[in-house]
Amino acid sequence: MEQWFISAKKADFNGIARHFGISPVLARLMRNRNLTTEEEMRKYLYGSLEDLYEPSLLKDAEKGVQVIKEKIMAGKKIRIISDYDVDGVSSNYILYRGLARCGAQVDYRIPDRVADGYGINEHLIDQAYEDGVDTVITCDNGIAAAEQISYGNGLGMTFVVTDHHDVPFVEKDGVRTEQIPEAAAVINPKQEDCAYPFKNICGAVVVYKFIELLYDAFGIGRREAQEFLEIAAMATVCDVMILQDENRILVKEGLRRMNETKIRGLRALIDANHLEDKKITAYHLGFILGPCINASGRLKTAKKALDLLLCTEESACRAMAEELLELNSERKEMTRKGEEEAHRYLEETGQMQDKVLVIFLPDCHESIAGIIAGRIRECYNKPVFVITRTREGLKGSGRSIETYHMYNEMVKVKECFTKFGGHPMAAGLSMEESRLSELRQRLNANAQLTEEDFVKKVHIDIALPVSWLSEEFLTELDMLEPFGNGNQKPLFAQKGFVITGARILGSTGRCLKMFLRDEKGYSIDAIYFGDTSLFFQDMENCCGKEETERIKKGLSSSVRMDCTYYPEVNEWRGQRTMQIVIKNYRFSCKKDIA
Length: 594
Description:
Layout: E1 2-6, H1 13-20, H2 24-32, H3 38-46, H4 61-73, E2 77-82, H5 86-101, E3 105-109, H6 122-130, E4 135-139, H7 146-154, E5 158-162, E6 169-172, E7 175-178, E8 185-187, H8 203-217, H9 229-238, H10 245-258, H11 264-272, H12 282-299, H13 303-310, H14 314-349, E9 357-360, H15 369-380, E10 384-390, E11 393-399, H16 406-411, E12 419-422, E13 426-431, H17 436-446, E14 456-460, E15 462-463, H18 471-477, E16 492-504, E17 511-517, E18 523-529, H19 532-543, H20 545-552, E19 559-572, E20 575-589
Parallel strand pairs: 1-14, 2-3, 2-4, 4-5, 5-8, 9-10, 15-16, 18-20
Antiparallel strand pairs: 6-7, 10-11, 11-13, 12-13, 16-17, 16-19, 17-18, 19-20
């Protein structure tokens, strides 16, 4: 079930258009993205690296730099410990390269997803201590490791935390108190008393800022740190950070450099995915390149991905990139099977009526629980936890909806977990199997969600007739990129299309080519990517089997389709034609009087 809404934000669109030399449609699209001031719009359209915030605004950043500088100057051994996802691998890469550039005696460890779990733990601290490591610097983890860092302090080690996850807290009488690890420095913009203006940066951007300050301390120009922008951009997109404010600038700049990257491992990964001749977009980062990096941490060890990024020998880079590509293919097949099992679990248990879905897949590989949770969330538009059985007990991942702050809700039932952490929209957990039923019961009892929250909201930017489209307008739309979380690709809509022809392309049944004519007689090609059998079933439910069969045969029918869409240029054998990509559809019946 869907509800369609057309945005109705007000502004002087003609005035904005004149000021920036753009169309009123583009001005409306910017306003729909909650841009209100001239400065916000300027930064959105033309923001550059000069518009990024000063790294020293990060609480403890300068203190951390001083600690690390002293350790480097004293020749102390420093170890980086990161997470095993794209953001963790990216953060580790930037820190390792940056610290080495400053002359540090530095190495790195990435926890094994299965053996170690998320983040720093006592085993990794013991290992570092035995290896003679003096200082541990975390990235993309550490903010929830107060006990572990206290243990390490007891061994006489020094800790610097760089992270971006929500800060753990205890709440008493309505007052929240943050639980900050007792490290030499804790650098995380989410801390309440951190003055950094933009809180929604990923772990890799936190360490990018840290390295800028470290380069200052060693007399190295900050400009040199820009060689890490491609990696920071990939981490930002893959960790689903909102593409607003400085994230938008960082990703835009990183993408601009991507096709000419000097990072040979990244170049090899681009080539392995046959993207060498394509303009790299945020889509490629989030759905093609990033998953290859992630696959190593999911199925083998994330060290493989980091080794690729650090590799400088071209033939070795090619071999490692191909291995990650194969791992990602294996991960895709495991995910497909896991998604089928999740749907079967909900059907057999009858739990799909729950407000919060807690799905127990004991044999699922723990590394893909989050991906499956995301797929099920998309299907039901409900918060989802997918929990699996491991050697150490149960582990799981959650994916949420806008109206459900997943981390805060987990805090309310923290007794159910042995370990947990995350964001409003995603989380990870460990727990004992005996508490699984209690977790499901308490999460659902606490949930303040209503049926309205489960209805998918489709926010349409503009009801725009397809006859208005042109290649010049599509070129102008490029100014809105990169698209992603917080800066969605514009969505247009038009009612009353006649479908004059339709055919399924390929063998997967997930690509439908259509030929449309609007009520004024304007014709345009359309493409729909999705379950085509469901598309025709929806048509049949609305208009009947006979009319649906007429559509399939290219005959005139009473079927009318309203749709939301995004326009693009289709290039085929040297020919360029305008087409629309259909995102949402709904049918009605009306006799064709043409």
